[in-house]
Amino acid sequence: MRKALIYTSIGVFVLASGAFLLPATAADMPQDITLEGCGTKQPPVEFTHGKHAESVECATCHHTQPDLTATSGEAATCVSCHKDPKDEAPSCAEMSPKKNPYHINCMGCHKDSVKKDASLKGKAPTTCKECHKK
Fold it and tell me: What is the CATH number of the domain that holds 102?
């Protein structure tokens, strides 16, 4: 009886721990995300995921998952591919606006959006301090 309880406890712990390591399903899509784990010189970025998902196709950011939708699929995090500078993917640890994948994609999209709709100026950040708030 005691052995069964120990094995059950271990099993529950392993399953519960795995929930934090697995990518989120699109149906469980978070509304807000803190983008962190890339660098140490700037504060993490608070990202309004739900708001962006209303106007941007999932595959725009989750580019390795072209079939991902807001109601189906498992979404990999950006840092799962873009954290290590030794990988083939561009590293999010780069600070350069021309090398960091967040800077390239986010700032590029924001600049394009402001060109199309001037009312977005100030709402679509394009500078360090607008995203990395202290």
Answer: 3.90.10.10
